[in-house]
Write a structure and sequence with these properties.
The chain has about 280 residues and is α/β, with parallel strands linked by helices. The protein has two domains: about 30 residues; about 250 residues, Purple Acid Phosphatase, chain A, domain 2. About 30% of the residues lie in helices and about 25% in strands. The chain has seven helices and 16 strands. Helix 3 packs parallel to helix 5. The model has no long low-confidence stretch (mean pLDDT about 95). InterPro entries: Calcineurin-like_PHP, Metallo-depent_PP-like, Metallophosphoesterase_sf.
C-alpha cells in the first residue's frame, strides 16, 4: 500500500509540474494583441482609421525561428506605422542581433519610429544600437519630433530619450530635468501631438505639457498580474504600480501602456502574456 501511495504521489507531482511548465511557457511565449480605438476632435479627418502598432520591452526575446511568430502577428494587424518605446535589448545579456532580427523584418511591414529605454541608456553601447537601427531604416525620435503627413493633414509625432542617460543605476533615481525642458518646448503646439516615451510613471508631466496621446512601456505589466488588483511590481513604481497596462485618461490626455514582450531580472510572466498594442485613431 505504501509503495502504491508513493507512486500515486509521484504521478500527481509530475502532472502538477508538467502543467505548471506548460502554463509558464504559454504565459511567456503566446503573444496577445490588444486592440483599442482612440477618438478625439483634434485628430485630423485624414487620419481617421489610422492604425498605430506599439511594441515595447523586447529585451532580446526571440519569438519563433528568426522572430517569425512576432512578425506574423504584426503583419496580421496591417499597421500604418510601428512605434517602439525602448528596451529592445537587455543590458545584462546584451544581444543586438536578436533585436535586429526583428527590426530588419518589421521595417518591411510599416515605417518604424523608435525611442530609447533605460536598458539602452545603461548598456554602454547605445551608439552601436542607434547606428544599427538607422542602417535598417528606423527613424529615431530621441528628443526630437516630426510631422506625420496624410493628404493635407498632419499630426506631430514626438519622442523622448530615456532619462536614465543621466544616471548609472536604479539607486540614482530618475533625473527628469532634461525631459521636462523638452516637453515644455512642445507644450504650446496646437497640433495633435503623439508622444513616444518609455516611462509611464511620468504621466503627470505629459498632462502638464498638453500631450494628447502617449505610448509607453517599461512596467512589464507589473510582471505578475493579480486578479482584481493588477500588476504586482514595476520599475520606478514599486509594488502595486499605478500604470502597467492599457489606457489611462486624464482630461484631454490619454496614455497607452504596453505590457511589453520580454523579461529582464525576473524571468517569468504570470497572468501577463506578451503584448502587442494596436490603437486605431478616430476623428470626431
Amino acid at each position: 500500500m505504501k509503495k502504491l501511495a508513493k507512486i500515486k504521489l509521484f504521478i500527481e507531482f509530475s502532472v502538477f509540474f508538467i502543467v505548471v511548465a506548460i502554463f509558464c511557457f504559454w504565459q511567456n511565449n503566446s503573444i496577445v494583441i490588444s486592440n483599442y480605438t482612440h477618438r478625439s476632435r483634434k485628430i485630423p479627418s485624414a487620419f481617421h482609421g489610422y492604425k498605430i502598432l506599439h511594441i515595447s520591452d523586447l529585451h532580446n526575446k526571440m519569438f519563433g525561428k528568426n522572430q517569425d511568430y512576432l512578425i506574423k502577428k504584426i503583419k496580421a494587424s496591417s499597421p500604418d506605422i510601428i512605434v517602439i518605446t525602448g528596451d529592445l535589448i537587455d543590458r545584462r545579456r546584451f544581444d543586438l542581433d536578436t533585436a535586429m532580427c526583428f527590426i530588419n523584418k518589421a521595417v518591411d511591414i510599416a515605417p518604424i519610429y523608435y525611442v530609447s529605454g533605460n536598458h539602452e541608456a545603461w548598456s554602454g553601447k547605445y551608439d552601436q544600437i542607434k547606428q544599427s537601427l538607422k542602417d535598417a531604416g528606423v527613424l529615431i525620435l530621441d528628443d526630437t519630433s516630426l510631422e506625420l503627413l496624410k493628404g493635407e493633414n498632419s499630426i506631430q509625432l514626438l519622442g523622448l530619450s530615456d532619462p536614465d542617460f543621466l544616471t548609472s543605476n536604479y539607486l540614482d533615481g530618475t533625473n527628469t530635468k532634461k525631459l521636462e525642458l523638452q516637453l515644455k518646448q512642445w507644450s504650446n503646439d496646437i497640433n495633435y501631438k503623439i508622444l513616444l516615451s518609455h516611462r509611464p510613471e511620468l504621466f503627470s508631466l505629459y498632462i502638464e505639457n498638453n500631450i494628447d496621446l502617449i505610448f509607453s512601456g517599461h512596467a512589464h505589466g507589473g510582471q505578475i498580474r493579480l486578479p482584481f488588483l493588477g500588476g504586482l511590481i514595476a520599475p520606478d513604481q514599486g509594488f502595486f504600480p499605478k500604470y502597467t497596462s492599457g489606457p489611462y485618461k486624464n482630461g484631454n490626455t490619454t496614455m497607452f501602456v504596453s505590457r511589453g514582450l520580454g523579461n529582464s531580472i525576473f524571468p517569468f510572466r504570470v497572468f501577463n502574456r506578451p503584448e502587442i498594442v494596436v490603437v486605431t485613431l478616430k476623428s470626431e
